[in-house]
Design a protein that fits this description.
It holds the Pfam family ARID. This protein has 116 residues and is mainly alpha-helical. The protein contains six helices and two strands, in the order αββααααα.
Amino acid sequence: MATTKQEQFINDLVQFYRNRGFSTAHPSKFIARLNGKNVDLSELYARVLELGGSYKVNQFNLWDDIYFKLFQTNFIGANFAVALRQIYNRYLLQYEKSCNGNFSNDQWNEDDDDDK
């Protein structure tokens, strides 16, 4: 059976976290919801990278833009932008740091480091 892009991405995330000692990492733990909608983590990751990575998205406060691209709606409030950033930090930030070493360590804010 063929896997979708999203399924392959989640499998990659699971392997990434298992390789770093999170033996309980499982695809079922990589399900995120925001405002009653599933968040496609592979698309979220791609959108953040399109804008230069999480450092730049945070620096220029672009979480509203990413929310719009993910859900095709203009309805957003500060809480949704914060929640989207938290989802990214929880599931994807460490992966970005490891896979996209285009930022120096001093560019990461200490509040970005939500442990998995």
